[in-house]
Every structure is written in structure tokens, then in C-alpha cells.
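**User:**
Make up any protein.

**Assistant:**
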Amino acid sequence: MTQEELDALLENGDIENIEEEQNSEENNEEVYPPPADDKHKVVAQLDEVTKESDKKATEMMDVLENVNNNIFSQKDEIEKVKNILEKQLNIFETLSKNFPHISTFKTSLNEIKEALNSISQIEELNSSMEEDVMNVMMIMQYQDIHRQKIERVINIMRALIKYMNRLFEGKVEDEERVKTAEHIHGDEGTELVSDDDIEALIAQFGGVN
């Protein structure tokens, strides 16, 4: 809350709203650094993301493969129908030419031409669908590249963690260290530094810009 907002609330005498806003700000204040629990384990979360991403990508590729197979099957069936219609077209063109007074031949000829026109439209649609499937497969490949990049980041982070552990590794086991080192002469009070004090100190450094 800014000083101007505080002055305005004090002028209106709305003390309850001041307390509510202060409580809300305290509740919404971000904890920094976040606690090292399952919710904030970065590498674990990234592992879950890459695992789920890989699973969904595999499922998507399976679906696309089925669609692509169906398109090829349709192309074969359409080609068979097209061949039959073309043969019928040749027959009725001859009949219509030799017997122009028989309207049935002319009508059938026109129907066959319309059917062949519909077949051509279906072929164009199939080609478009086939192209769309190929484009989606290419996009999925880019998605897989992004997943590999995340995995590379994970590997780098894990390598840095191992390096830092080796860097700060001592020759003396923690159990063997002198307990009095936690409290030296000149410190006020007799209590040792607690975990809460250490976390508060880390939070204090984290808030420094």
C-alpha cells in the first residue's frame, strides 16, 4: 500500500479496510527463496514435463499415422471407382453419339461426368489432408527438439549440482565436527543458531537487489 492510499483511507476513517488490505498483502507476499519441498523441486518438475511431453507426443504421432494410413486407403478405393466411371464414360459417350435420340444415354453421360467431378474434388481434399498431416508431423518434430533442449538443461543443472557438492565437500564428516563451532565466544545468548534463523538470513539476502 502506498502512502497516498494510506492517507486516503485514514482521511475516510476506514480502519477496517486498512487492516484487511494489510492482511491480504501479508498473505500474498511471495516467500523467497521458496521452500525445498516437492512443489518447488525444479529438476523434478522439469522431469515430469519432459516425461508427459514425450508421452503425449508419442500418442499424437500414433494418431497422425492412423490418419495418414486412412488417407492412403481412401486414395486406393477412389482410384478404383474412378477407373470404373471412366470406362462407363467412354461407353455412354459412344452410345450418346450413335443414338442421339435416346435421352437416357445423354442423361447417364451427364451423371457420370458429375460423379467424376466429385471424385476430383475428393482427391484434392485428400491431398490437402495428407499435406496437413505432414505439416503436423514436422511441428511435432520441433516439439521433440524443445523437449530435448529441456533435458539438456536438466543435465546441465544436475552436473552443476554435483560440481557444487564436490566443491563444498569437506574431509571431516559432519557428525565429527566440533559442536561448539556453532556458538563462539562473544555471541550474545546461549542458544545455537537454529534452522529458522538460517532460513531468515537466506531470505534477507534474497531480498537484496
About this structure: Residues 103-167 form the longest helix (65 residues). The helical segments are 3-12, 15-28, 42-98, 103-167, 195-206. The radius of gyration is 38 Å. The chain has a mean pLDDT of 78.
